[in-house]
Design brief:
heterodimer, A: 639 residues, alpha+beta, 3 domains, B: alpha+beta, OB fold (Dihydrolipoamide Acetyltransferase, E2P)
């Protein structure tokens, strides 16, 4: 009964979404002022009603999971009676259908947030934004109802479920997809604002100011979601890597890159009235790339962890949806753009030009990632052969494009608006530059070996960190209230610096040893010694595991005991590596079990890593998230 | 500079930078494409020597050998990839992924040695028990199709006409 109610609620939600998508926008087009207000006022209540209905449907699906209702096909495919309760709940979005339901739930949540926090906006703008969001919701609800219904029954019911993919049974999975989706879907809000501004023909500073906090919040969630995904891959896949240039990772990175360009471009549009057309294009691109990400992950075209199911109907639907969204918004853009007034004048060297340069670099980097991600798919689809584009391509392309981007952060935030002077900027930053060079030359000796790459990466990180610190000190020493967005900007930039130093440190100083070990064997990565103490059989709620006890010694003192596991899940007989990790401020020690090398299972292949600076990666991401939160909380936006 | 000259300079500089970036990206792209070959294609000499490519199919039953002689923590393994028609020996140093099993699909990336042994630098892990890497599936399908085609081209002699 519960699943049927959920299904019914979802159908009603689709009807309400159509109303939300059509009526308020119609209200902005009719002549009669009375009808105008009546229709436009429908935006908020329909958004609220839609949220209630989708939340009900989501609740119904979650209840089916928690009740172990294996007569629901989706539940039987992604859950198991032995699965711990929190994972049964998280399993709601452990597969294709449920994650789409999560997508629309978050979309309606964002819509309600827009409805609530838009008191200061003119009613016609609210009507357009909520209307556009409603149309997007119609598309996704139809997608769910026609191709991917999570409430489909299985008759006769399964005795027990197939279980959630063991890789996904992890606290990281419980929050990674919702965060990432909050970011993806948040880009829909930025998109809706841009499209509404195009519709109204009022592409002005006010639009940019309304759109900014929403875009920053979306970017913050996206940053956090990507960071969580990377962290999850790092400790859960057991390979010690934190970024694989997997298509699914690329799918989330592309909207992030464009989103980063967008939040900066929006600032220029708000403050100087420039770059309006560019900003609108970035907003359209960011959301289109979010949709493309959904398409890449959900259509099963990718050979990846995340490709849950392969069903061409779904891919075609998303592809058509993508074509409609991109096509319609670009047509609207082409129609309206000639009317957009030019913004304030700017000189060749000015804060605007630095921001524009970075914007373009980020877009080029996105294009490069896009090429590497979809080219193999296109070639495959055209039957021209099978090929892949590996990490070497992305590394070769990405670093040279992002190095100048990161470098320009500092001169860009020092330069004056409209007309800046190169000599003046150089004068202001000369000691910062000298300091960064000195640190870059000296630090590698401390860290264990000088190399050009290490020095260069450290220079870049130190440059941004010192430059940010310099600006904060200069500002704090002056009187006057400092807005939250000032802290947001500089904390986020500082986070980028920490991330760059972290990446450099891991790349240049990581040590990896693949070894065979028996009980009592040791392996040394100076100054640490790892000793395999024992191997035990342990039992979890739905798996059996071999757990190794690895002592880590430093100067003959035990500093940590790591317990990597090799699990075997009952329901799928799937093997899983659980790494043992000790995190410090400067480094991680990482041990994972390979496989038994003899029949008695006393000798195992093991992988032992010394990973410096890994905690800095997560620290950098968290600082960027903090910066985003502060920027969105700025008092200016709450008027 | 006059405003117009300045704008022109800005646009020209932008175009030059974009072209440079595009040329650089496409160059990196070209040199990092990794092509896929089936064991049949490899046995027919279609795969390049000395260039990295991917090969896939099934791990032949009973072909997995660990090189226990290698001391000092060497984890050398040898196995054979087959598409049921042709076979291809592989060596790999390192830890095999969790789901590497005899009789299951596999994709390996590496170079073909002079002796015809594929030296893998990477054995790809796919995280689902029943999941067949599409490339491996492709190799098997190709081989099956080739077999079927052959049996059509040289039909068994049939006596009598209807």
């Amino acid at each position: 009964m519960i699943p049927e109610l959920g299904n019914f609620a979802l159908m009603l939600a689709a009807v309400v979404a159509v109303m939300q998508g059509v009526l308020p926008i119609a209200g902005t087009l009719v002549r009669n002022p009375q009808t105008q207000i009546t229709l436009q006022s429908l935006a908020r209540p329909t958004a609220a009603l839609q949220f209630v209905l989708i939340a009900f449907a989501f609740g119904a699906l979650a209840t089916s999971f928690l009740n172990n209702d294996f007569s629901v096909l989706y539940v039987s495919q992604h859950s198991n009676s032995l699965l711990p309760k929190p994972y049964q709940f998280a399993a709601v979005w452990g597969g294709h259908e449920g994650s789409l339901l999560l997508w629309v739930l978050l979309l309606s949540l964002w819509t309600v947030a827009v409805a609530v926090f838009s008191r200061s906006l003119p009613l016609d703008m609210v009507a357009r934004v909520i209307g556009v969001l409603g149309l997007i919701s119609v598309g996704f609800l139809l997608f769910i109802l026609t191709t991917s219904n999570p409430f489909e029954r299985l008759l006769p019911a399964a005795l027990d479920g197939k279980d959630l993919n063991p890789l996904l049974q992890d606290p990281g999975l419980v929050i990674h997809p919702p965060m990432l989706y909050m970011g993806y879907v948040g880009m829909a809000v930025a998109f809706a604002f841009a499209v509404s501004a195009l519709m109204s023909g009022r592409l002005d500073a006010a639009w940019a100011r309304w759109s900014r906090p929403w875009t920053v919040v979306a970017w913050t969630f996206l940053t956090f979601g990507i960071g969580l995904g990377s962290w999850w891959a790092y400790y859960e896949l057991g390979w010690g890597g934190w970024w694989f240039w997997d298509p699914v990772e690329n799918a989330s990175l592309m909207p992030w890159l464009v989103g980063t360009a967008l939040i900066h471009s929006l600032m220029v549009t708000e403050k100087r009235g420039s770059f309006k057309a560019w900003t609108v294009l970035l907003a359209i691109a960011a959301f289109s790339l979010s949709l493309l990400g959904t398409f890449l992950v959900r259509s099963g075209v990718l050979t990846s962890v995340h490709a849950f199911a392969s069903d061409p109907k779904r891919g075609v639907f998303v592809l058509i949806f993508l074509a409609v969204v991109v096509g319609a918004s670009l047509t609207l853009f082409a129609w309206r753009a000639p009317r957009v007034a030019l913004g304030g004048r700017m000189e060749l060297v000015s804060r605007e030009s630095f921001l524009l340069a970075n914007s373009v670099l980020l877009v080029v980097a996105t294009a490069a990632v896009l090429l590497g991600t979809i080219y193999p798919l296109i070639i495959d689809a055209l039957n021209l052969g099978k090929l892949s584009v590996g990490p070497p391509y992305f590394n070769a392309v990405f670093a040279p494009l992002l190095v100048p981007t990161v470098f320009l952060i500092i001169p860009g935030s020092v330069a004056r608006w409209r007309d800046a002077n190169v000599r003046e900027i150089a004068h202001k930053l000369r000691w910062t530059f000298a300091g960064a060079v000195a640190l870059a030359v000296l630090l590698p000796f401390v860290l264990g070996g000088w190399s050009l790459g290490a020095a260069f990466g450290l220079f870049l990180g130190c440059w941004v960190a010192l430059g940010t610190a310099q600006q904060v000190i200069l500002r704090v020493s002056k009187p006057g209230r400092i807005g939250a967005s000032f802290w947001g900007q500089h904390i986020a930039h500082f986070g980028m610096a920490v991330l760059v130093i972290g990446i450099t440190g891991v790349k240049c100083y990581e040590v990896e040893r693949d070894v065979r070990m028996q009980i009592g064997d040791v392996v040394t990565i100076a100054p640490y010694t790892f000793r395999l103490n024992s191997l035990d059989e342990v039992r979890g709620p739905n798996y059996k595991a071999v757990r190794a006890d690895v002592q880590v010694l430093r100067n003959d003192k035990v500093i940590e005991i790591l317990q990597p596991e090799k699990r075997r899940y009952f329901s799928s007989a799937m093997a899983m590596t659980e790494a043992g990790i000790d995190s410090g401020f400067m480094r991680d020690l990482y041990v994972s079990l390979g496989e038994p090398l003899d029949d008695a299972r006393t000798e195992w292949s093991m992988r032992v890593y010394y990973k410096p600076f890994v905690p800095w990666l997560w620290g950098g991401v968290l600082l960027m998230v903090l910066g985003g939160v502060l920027a969105a909380l700025d008092r200016r936006y709450r008027q | 500079m006059k405003p117009r000259t300045k704008r022109f300079a800005l646009i020209a500089a932008g175009i030059v930078v974009l072209c440079a970036a595009a040329a650089f990206v496409l160059n990196a792209f070209q040199s990092n494409l990794v092509f896929f070959f089936t064991p049949t294609q490899v046995s027919q000499g279609e795969a390049p020597k000395g260039r990295t490519f991917r090969a896939g199919g099934m791990v032949k039953e009973g072909s997995l050998v660990r090189d226990n002689a290698a001391a000092g923590g060497g984890n050398t393994v040898r196995f054979v990839i087959t598409d049921t028609v042709h076979e291809m020996p592989v060596t790999y140093v390192g830890l095999l992924p969790d789901l590497f099993k005899e009789g299951k699909g596999v994709v390996a990336q590496g170079k073909l040695g002079e002796d015809g042994v594929f030296v893998a630098s990477e054995v790809l892990a796919k995280h689902d028990e029943n999941y067949m890497p599409p490339e491996a599936q492709h190799a098997m399908d190709q081989a099956t199709a080739a077999k079927a085609a052959k049996s059509v081209q040289t039909p068994a002699p049939v006596k009598g006409n209807p």
